[in-house]
Prior knowledge:
154 residues, five-stranded mixed beta sheet
Amino acid sequence: MPDPHTPKQGTYLGFDYGEKHIGVAVGQRLTCTSNGLATIPTLGKLARWEAIGRLVDAWQPCGLVVGLSYQEDGTENPITPQILKFSRQLEGRFRLPVYTMDETLSTVESKSLFYQSRAKHSTGFATVRDILAAQLILQSWLEHIAQQERQKNG
């Protein structure tokens, strides 16, 4: 009998919640890969939820992953309570399991990836950074789950 706490195989959406934008990525447990999808402005709550709803409808995920922000010493960032509220709202609105993943290094890593690739994007650095951060959050979570399964199965 499968463990009810183990995430299902399938598609997941990952979110990098910020005060101005939410980066979104999509990934697969089977392939353990993720790709950036979109950046959603946080202003206008109705528009934000409609945009997320369209992505949920299009991708039909079996779960959602949200990056959780902490200081280097492990204490909460000022935005952490907002991220936790966003996570609860996602779960309530879409009736999907929501998993969190420490995002401490995702923004720094996304900046590095952005500059390494010298990406030229018409909507600017912040948009690309948010998408890359969401992709890194989701990718880290997928790899973490795969590693847990390998350890469990010996």
